[in-house]
Amino acid sequence: MEQHPSLKGVDIRAEIERLRRERNAVILAHYYQKPEIQDLADFVGDSLDLSRKAQATEADVIAFCGVRFMAETAKILSPQKIVVLPDMNAGCSLEDSCPPEQFAAFRSEHPDAIALTYINCSAAVKALSDVIVTSSSAEKILSQIPKDQPIIFGPDRNLGGYLARKTGRDLILWPGVCIVHEAFSETELLKLKAQYPGAPVAAHPECPPVILDHADYVGSTSGILEFAKSFDGDTLIVATEPHIIHQMEKALPGKHFIGAPGADGNCNCNICPYMALNTMEKLYVALRDLEPRIELEEQLRLKAKKSLDAMLAMASGTVGLGDLGPRKVTGD
Q: Model pTM greater than 0.85?
């Protein structure tokens, strides 16, 4: 990518390092970021794990190389810190599929249901939810909810459908999907499996059922990375955004990792276009100017934090849904 004219002659990497020190900043990179951003980050990981690690630091500034809902989560947990996102247009198809006003109306159509909501949503939708879940905590939290309790699950219908099939629970699904995971092709995956017989498939539960049906392991991005470290054999087919393969190759240079293909037989369509908006140049500018900055109205932040706190309490196994007090959420 050609450097912006105003940055000609600037050593971007050196300037990021200087600003990291001067701003007392922590740099977070999701597994779906470009390798050069992953390699300079203080922490690389899943979205919630990154926010919690940043919360535990003494940093004054959080530079979140991910997407907007992730940076919002960091601000929810660390309101006293400045949180910047290199490109404010780095959104998420799941977040976009679930506008808060429509989600509030959907909740009103199911007044007896609680909302178990995937973390891939806006702060406003988190504030309208009862318990937030991640792909790694969803099943554990779902198991703690009485079987006769109606449950809305959104915004990812694929993750919700996977949970429903695995647990036998009847979930009211919001119809959102991740455009990256929806792009995988069953036909092309079967061709790849035939090309590499015996190679297991690790898939993210945001994939549609026709992909998950061929998976040997289904789990979060961090779970897929752990599976990559433990599977037998030398070749693994990976059905999630392919930039996670960078971490696999660093950890296991002797093994072969192949991104599952899209409909055209290659992986280009499976690179998240939102994650790709973050660049080294934009990270430098964000640290230099402390913009674009995530700001949340305090009442909204506290409502959103309540649903995140419920998740953390239930995921710990020490607090059940009934111990959290009244959980009905209204649209006010």
A: yes
